[in-house]
């Protein structure tokens, strides 16, 4: 009988603990689907200095994006698929645009971010954002060249003073040309940045 009475006293306290908010466990998750139809006109279809020929494209672009936000971190994954139809030549192609990014606050002074971008296309402006290092230059004879580009970056930022930060970063870029004359490459960019403001902020 005495044990039963103790449980009766603990039961309301246990219920309150279970119903209490736990900000460390809560997350905000969002899943978004998109569908876009884009019309493009290219005044120099084969990227030539002379004998230019125009082209008209239709691009059907379905996309899917997932984001998750917690108290100290946030993550995002986005994938765009482009069905491209060339009405001038009758050709078709399939473009891919994938993004994965995340940020984490380890403490009030230290944060880490990671980003990975992946493209497969013959259009250096695919996905409404220019793709660096793959924009072909004009030449007497050149056509659109299909490429695969993957860019990975990681950086960690630490605030060692009220106006001072140190950032360690690394970026890796891999370009693989499926067809064409441009050279493939793999680039590594490690960086160490120390900044300090000697004068007070206005």
TrEMBL record:
Secretion signal, residue range per the UniProt entry: 1-24
Recorded superkingdom: Bacteria
Keywords: Signal
Record protein name field: DUF2490 domain-containing protein
High-level lineage: Bacteria, Pseudomonadati, Thermodesulfobacteriota, Desulfobulbia, Desulfobulbales
């Amino acid at each position: 009988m005495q044990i039963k009475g103790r449980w009766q006293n603990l039961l309301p306290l246990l219920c309150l603990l279970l119903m209490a908010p736990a900000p460390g466990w809560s997350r905000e998750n969002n899943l978004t689907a998109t569908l876009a139809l884009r019309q493009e006109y290219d005044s120099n279809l084969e990227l030539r200095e002379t004998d230019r020929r125009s082209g008209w494209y239709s691009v059907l672009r379905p996309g899917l994006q997932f984001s998750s936000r917690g108290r100290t971190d946030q993550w995002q994954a986005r994938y765009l698929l482009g069905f491209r139809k060339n009405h001038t030549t009758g050709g078709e192609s399939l473009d891919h645009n994938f993004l994965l990014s995340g940020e984490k606050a380890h403490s009030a002074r230290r944060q880490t971010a990671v980003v990975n971008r992946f493209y497969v296309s013959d259009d250096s402006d695919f996905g409404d954002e220019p793709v660096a290092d793959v924009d072909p230059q004009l030449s007497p004879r050149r056509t659109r060249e299909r490429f695969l580009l993957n860019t990975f970056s990681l950086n960690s930022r630490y605030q060692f003073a009220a106006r001072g930060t140190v950032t360690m970063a690394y970026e890796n870029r891999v370009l693989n040309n499926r067809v064409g004359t441009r050279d493939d490459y793999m680039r590594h960019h490690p960086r160490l940045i120390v900044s300090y403001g000697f004068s007070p902020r206005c």
